[in-house]
UniProtKB/TrEMBL annotation:
<comment type="similarity">
    <text>In the C-terminal section; belongs to the PPC synthetase family.</text>
</comment>
<comment type="function">
    <text>Catalyzes two steps in the biosynthesis of coenzyme A. In the first step cysteine is conjugated to 4'-phosphopantothenate to form 4-phosphopantothenoylcysteine, in the latter compound is decarboxylated to form 4'-phosphopantotheine.</text>
</comment>
<feature type="binding site">
    <location>
        <position position="146"/>
    </location>
    <ligand>
        <name>CTP</name>
    </ligand>
</feature>
<dbReference type="GO" id="GO:0004633">
    <property type="term" value="F:phosphopantothenoylcysteine decarboxylase activity"/>
</dbReference>
<feature type="binding site">
    <location>
        <begin position="126"/>
        <end position="129"/>
    </location>
    <ligand>
        <name>CTP</name>
    </ligand>
</feature>
<dbReference type="GO" id="GO:0015941">
    <property type="term" value="P:pantothenate catabolic process"/>
</dbReference>
<comment type="similarity">
    <text>In the N-terminal section; belongs to the HFCD (homo-oligomeric flavin containing Cys decarboxylase) superfamily.</text>
</comment>
<dbReference type="GO" id="GO:0071513">
    <property type="term" value="C:phosphopantothenoylcysteine decarboxylase complex"/>
</dbReference>
<feature type="binding site">
    <location>
        <position position="160"/>
    </location>
    <ligand>
        <name>CTP</name>
    </ligand>
</feature>
<keyword id="KW-0436">Ligase</keyword>
<keyword id="KW-0460">Magnesium</keyword>
<dbReference type="GO" id="GO:0015937">
    <property type="term" value="P:coenzyme A biosynthetic process"/>
</dbReference>
<feature type="binding site">
    <location>
        <position position="98"/>
    </location>
    <ligand>
        <name>CTP</name>
    </ligand>
</feature>
<protein>
    <recommendedName>
        <fullName>Coenzyme A biosynthesis bifunctional protein CoaBC</fullName>
        <ecNumber>4.1.1.36</ecNumber>
        <ecNumber>6.3.2.5</ecNumber>
    </recommendedName>
</protein>
<feature type="domain" description="DNA/pantothenate metabolism flavoprotein C-terminal">
    <location>
        <begin position="6"/>
        <end position="217"/>
    </location>
</feature>
<keyword id="KW-0479">Metal-binding</keyword>
<feature type="binding site">
    <location>
        <position position="164"/>
    </location>
    <ligand>
        <name>CTP</name>
    </ligand>
</feature>
């Protein structure tokens, strides 16, 4: 990252999955290593920003100069994000679980008989990114989302850009080798109202620097 590129700006980044507890031993969660979000937080800090990193359950070291808040569930992530605002830039790189159990079972849910079906009641989690983007008192100059898709990547990314009222969305295809999830490399396409840019497959650390440069560019636009 270019030193000074984000000097004087506060950036809130979310990273990793969220875990939604079903009972004391089981949870629902998305696959996510948190590597991309952590790389973006590290890059923003190198660019001179004050960075708050709200991290779901991941095993990654805290990047230098980054203030880290660990959370487990989507609701906890939402609260930590709102506690970290106001900020200039929000980057939602977390793979937030879309559903959470309607009720947590304090005792372990017993297995059904073989061949029987277990039905779970799930409710939607809050869409943290959409809520953040809708806030008018958070001081945000740029709200950035991620879209991991298996197909129709560009269409879905553009839809999310509009429906969640984002300034920038970073789309990547999942389910292909060398991209997404646990991978150290990724290929991505950035979309903003009126433009797009492709980033060829590269280490996440390098893509994070390119993303921070694009964020700085979009701030000037
Ligand atoms: O709609 P979808 O989940 O694919 O959107 C992905 C983007 O929205 C990511 O930036 C993710 O961090 C954010 N998101 C969120 N809260 C949710 C679901 C997704 O902030 N409950």
């Amino acid at each position: 990252a270019t030193p000074g590129l984000l000097q004087g700006l506060k950036v809130v980044v979310t990273a990793g999955p969220t875990y939604e507890d079903l009972d004391p031993v089981r949870y629902l969660g998305n696959r996510s290593s948190g590597k991309m979000g952590f790389a973006v937080a590290a890059s923003a800090a190198r660019a001179g920003a004050e960075v708050v990193l709200v991290a779901g359950p991941v095993q990654l070291p805290t990047p230098p100069g980054v203030q880290r808040v660990d959370v487990r569930s989507a609701e906890q992530m939402r609260q930590a994000v709102f506690a970290a605002l106001p900020a200039d830039i929000y980057i939602g790189a977390a793979a937030v679980a879309d559903y959470t159990p309607r009720a947590f079972s304090p005792s372990k849910i017993k297995k059904t008989g073989t061949g029987q079906v277990l039905a779970l009641d799930l409710v939607r989690t809050p869409d943290i990114l959409a809520e953040v983007a809708a806030r008018e008192d958070a001081g945000l100059k740029l709200v950035v989302g991620f879209a991991a898709e298996t197909d129709n990547v560009a269409d879905y990314a553009r839809q999310k850009l509009t429906s969640k009222r984002l300034d920038l969305i970073i789309a990547n295809r999942v389910g292909v080798p060398g991209a997404g999830f646990e991978s150290d490399t990724n290929a991505m396409t950035a979309f903003w109202p009126g433009g797009e840019r492709d980033f060829a497959s590269a280490p996440k650390v390098q893509l994070a620097d390119a993303l921070v440069a694009l964020v700085a560019e979009r701030l000037q636009a």
